[in-house]
Amino acid sequence: MSQLLTTLMRNTLKTLVESNGFDRVLQQVNITSASKGRISAEMVVTEGSTNFSGRLHGGMTATIVDQLSSLALTAALVTDSEQREQHFAKVNSVSLDLSVQFLSGVQLGDTLLIEANALKCGKNIAFLSVDIYNKKSNQLVANGKHTKYLLNK
Predict the structure, then answer these.
(1) pTM, 2 dp
(2) Which of 2, 5, 14, 113 is the most buried (most CB within 10 A)?
(3) InterPro entries from the entry (predicted)?
């Protein structure tokens, strides 16, 4: 685990969450570690992230897949000098495809374990994945795949 990279990814997520944009819904996500191309995080399911039946909302799950895989991409491509800056890191990219398999429901109050990985970063295309587990049962509750086009690599 790279402590510099973990701190940088936490700061990057903090900047996104504190913006006026949609990313603020990720305020409950806590990055526990980061290494080259990999992000581990936890999140407690709160009322703001549930649907009418008190389960984790599918849109929230998709947002976790979208943003945490994008952070894994950033962690894969960030330079050593950017790691030392410790403020914010960004990779210019756009989504080409995002899919989520919903495997099990998650209740209000449950804690999620999130593992995001940059599987392959080519010249123009990156392939990313996210596995989301229920911490208590260690059951896989969702799996996401994300393909991104790299704008300025």
Answers:
(1) 0.91
(2) 5
(3) ACOT13, HotDog_dom_sf, PAAI_dom, Thioestr_dom
Q: Using alpha carbons, list the distances in angstroms from residue 50 to 83, 93, 102, 116.
A: 34, 29, 14, 21
* Domain of residue 131, residue span: 1-150
Indicate if the alpha-carbon torsion angle 73, 96, 60, 134 is positive or negative. negative
Q: Among 80, 90, 81, which Cα is nearest to 9's?
A: 90
CA separation, residue 135 to residues 58, 72, 127 (Å): 18, 20, 26
Total structural domains in the chain?
Answer: 1
Per-residue pLDDT tens over the stretch 1-13 = 488 889 889 998 9
Q: How far apart (Å, rounded) are the C-alpha atoms in residues 4 and 6? A: 5
The alpha-helical segments, DSSP class H, found in 78-115 are 80-85
CATH number, domain of 15, equals 3.10.129.10
The conformation of residue 105, written as its DSSP 8-state character, comes to -
**pLDDT tens column, 57-83:** 999 999 999 999 999 999 998 866 665
Could you report the per-residue pLDDT of 133-142, keeping only the tens digit for each?
999 999 999 9
